[in-house]
Sequence to fold (200 residues):
Amino acid sequence: MLPSLSDRATLLVPVPHEALTLPETLVFGTRTLVRKREHHITLFGFDIGRVLAPVLSEIRATVDELVAAADLTWTPSSRWYLLHRDKPRDLLTVVMLVDAPGIAAFFDACAQTLAPRVPALADETRTPGGAAAFFRPPPPHITCYTSDERGLDGIGLRLPEDIELAQRRAQDGDSSGLRAFLLSPALLPPAPSSPAAPAG
Fold:
């Protein structure tokens, strides 16, 4: 089953739990993180969804066609990060970056195809740089663990440079904002069992 736009114009590539062989918890110092209840790769998060939502009925079929034509396969990587944010509440997550080159091509197609149909993209005060700047893919990743004991909450990564900026903030010793810490292989769970996983 291919991913499709939600009623809030978000778009997620589902990742079956069985595609990742992971322990149920990870411990960092005094904090225990639990495995997230569902895994996915975010294409359109809430920020993109807010812009697309007003024209959702007009673009849904087009987005479905773009998804059907896209290569949304992914392979696990060895790059794992601990993310820490303090607002709106303190939260830790562990994310695994994935290799998914087709996502960048999908976003390029969205910029070209959807831009004329989304009035907000022509408003520079809302989306500086227009469609090309707006449709920049987030770093492809899967949130595997969270400090939310319900296993629900994650930390959104919107732009390609978000992890790099969060790493820099951590290295500078900042105690607020999003911080990212590259994890040592010794702290990681076993490698995911699936060498490649298709979308849907």
